[in-house]
Specification:
Strand order of the largest sheet: 1-3-2
Number of helices: 8
Oligomer: single chain
Largest sheet: 3 strands, antiparallel
Radius of gyration: 24 Å
Structural class: alpha+beta
Strand content: 5-15%
Number of strands: 3
Distance between the termini: 51 Å
Order of helices and strands: HHHHEHHEEHH
Length: about 130
Amino acid sequence: MRTAYLEGRSIAALARDHGVSRGAIRTAVADLLPDRAATEEDAPALELLVTLDMPGKVADFLSAADLEAAERTALDQGVVVRRGQGYTLRVTAVPAVHRRLLSLCLSMLDRRQRWRIRAYEAGCRGRRR
Protein backbone atom coordinates (compact mmCIF):
# COMPACT_ATOMS: atom_id res chain seq x y z
CA MET A 1 0.00 0.00 0.00
CA ARG A 2 2.81 2.42 0.86
CA THR A 3 4.62 1.70 -2.38
CA ALA A 4 1.40 2.25 -4.34
CA TYR A 5 0.96 5.60 -2.61
CA LEU A 6 4.55 6.55 -3.44
CA GLU A 7 3.92 5.57 -7.07
CA GLY A 8 1.11 8.13 -7.23
CA ARG A 9 -2.09 6.26 -6.36
CA SER A 10 -4.65 8.42 -4.61
CA ILE A 11 -5.76 7.81 -1.05
CA ALA A 12 -9.36 7.33 -2.22
CA ALA A 13 -8.32 4.69 -4.80
CA LEU A 14 -6.26 2.81 -2.22
CA ALA A 15 -9.20 2.88 0.21
CA ARG A 16 -11.52 1.44 -2.44
CA ASP A 17 -9.01 -1.28 -3.37
CA HIS A 18 -8.47 -2.39 0.23
CA GLY A 19 -12.05 -1.89 1.43
CA VAL A 20 -11.13 0.50 4.23
CA SER A 21 -11.77 4.16 4.98
CA ARG A 22 -9.63 6.98 3.62
CA GLY A 23 -8.72 7.81 7.23
CA ALA A 24 -7.20 4.35 7.66
CA ILE A 25 -5.09 4.86 4.54
CA ARG A 26 -4.00 8.32 5.72
CA THR A 27 -2.94 6.80 9.04
CA ALA A 28 -0.95 4.09 7.26
CA VAL A 29 0.90 6.57 5.04
CA ALA A 30 1.00 9.48 7.53
CA ASP A 31 4.78 9.86 7.44
CA LEU A 32 4.68 10.00 3.64
CA LEU A 33 2.13 12.83 3.41
CA PRO A 34 3.53 16.14 2.07
CA ASP A 35 2.86 18.18 5.21
CA ARG A 36 4.56 15.56 7.40
CA ALA A 37 7.52 14.87 5.10
CA ALA A 38 8.85 18.42 5.43
CA THR A 39 9.03 18.13 9.20
CA GLU A 40 12.17 16.45 10.43
CA GLU A 41 12.31 14.70 13.76
CA ASP A 42 15.42 16.67 14.68
CA ALA A 43 13.69 20.01 14.11
CA PRO A 44 13.01 21.89 17.34
CA ALA A 45 9.39 21.91 18.43
CA LEU A 46 7.68 25.26 18.41
CA GLU A 47 6.74 26.49 21.83
CA LEU A 48 3.36 28.05 22.27
CA LEU A 49 3.06 31.54 23.62
CA VAL A 50 1.58 31.80 27.11
CA THR A 51 -0.10 34.92 28.49
CA LEU A 52 0.22 35.48 32.23
CA ASP A 53 -0.68 38.40 34.46
CA MET A 54 2.21 39.86 36.43
CA PRO A 55 1.57 42.16 39.41
CA GLY A 56 2.58 45.77 38.74
CA LYS A 57 5.02 45.90 41.66
CA VAL A 58 6.84 42.87 40.27
CA ALA A 59 6.88 44.39 36.77
CA ASP A 60 8.36 47.61 38.19
CA PHE A 61 10.94 45.56 40.05
CA LEU A 62 11.93 43.64 36.90
CA SER A 63 12.06 46.75 34.70
CA ALA A 64 15.01 47.96 36.78
CA ALA A 65 16.78 44.58 36.55
CA ASP A 66 19.42 43.49 34.04
CA LEU A 67 17.40 41.35 31.61
CA GLU A 68 18.21 39.46 28.44
CA ALA A 69 16.76 40.67 25.13
CA ALA A 70 13.84 38.19 25.06
CA GLU A 71 12.82 39.03 28.61
CA ARG A 72 13.09 42.78 28.04
CA THR A 73 11.02 42.46 24.86
CA ALA A 74 8.33 40.46 26.66
CA LEU A 75 8.06 43.09 29.39
CA ASP A 76 8.09 45.99 26.93
CA GLN A 77 5.31 44.42 24.86
CA GLY A 78 3.17 43.66 27.92
CA VAL A 79 -0.27 45.20 28.15
CA VAL A 80 -1.11 47.26 31.24
CA VAL A 81 -4.43 46.38 32.86
CA ARG A 82 -5.66 48.72 35.60
CA ARG A 83 -6.64 46.94 38.82
CA GLY A 84 -8.04 49.20 41.52
CA GLN A 85 -5.18 51.35 42.80
CA GLY A 86 -2.47 49.35 41.07
CA TYR A 87 -2.07 47.56 37.77
CA THR A 88 -1.30 44.20 36.24
CA LEU A 89 1.05 43.66 33.33
CA ARG A 90 -0.25 41.01 30.93
CA VAL A 91 2.91 39.40 29.51
CA THR A 92 2.87 37.08 26.49
CA ALA A 93 5.98 34.94 25.97
CA VAL A 94 7.20 31.36 25.70
CA PRO A 95 7.22 29.43 28.99
CA ALA A 96 11.04 29.58 29.25
CA VAL A 97 10.94 33.39 29.40
CA HIS A 98 8.25 33.30 32.10
CA ARG A 99 10.30 30.83 34.15
CA ARG A 100 13.40 33.04 33.84
CA LEU A 101 11.43 36.12 34.93
CA LEU A 102 10.05 34.15 37.86
CA SER A 103 13.53 33.03 38.94
CA LEU A 104 14.72 36.64 38.79
CA CYS A 105 11.76 37.70 40.91
CA LEU A 106 12.43 35.04 43.51
CA SER A 107 16.10 35.89 43.73
CA MET A 108 15.58 39.65 44.04
CA LEU A 109 12.53 39.94 46.29
CA ASP A 110 12.96 39.42 49.99
CA ARG A 111 10.78 36.98 51.93
CA ARG A 112 8.24 39.62 52.95
CA GLN A 113 7.50 40.56 49.33
CA ARG A 114 7.20 37.07 47.83
CA TRP A 115 3.44 37.06 48.35
CA ARG A 116 3.23 39.49 45.43
CA ILE A 117 4.29 36.88 42.91
CA ARG A 118 2.21 33.86 44.00
CA ALA A 119 -0.34 34.20 41.20
CA TYR A 120 2.37 34.73 38.60
CA GLU A 121 4.29 31.76 39.98
CA ALA A 122 1.21 29.54 39.76
CA GLY A 123 0.79 30.52 36.11
CA CYS A 124 4.44 29.82 35.32
CA ARG A 125 4.19 26.38 36.85
CA GLY A 126 1.01 25.60 34.90
CA ARG A 127 -1.39 25.75 37.84
CA ARG A 128 -4.49 27.88 38.05
CA ARG A 129 -5.24 29.74 41.22
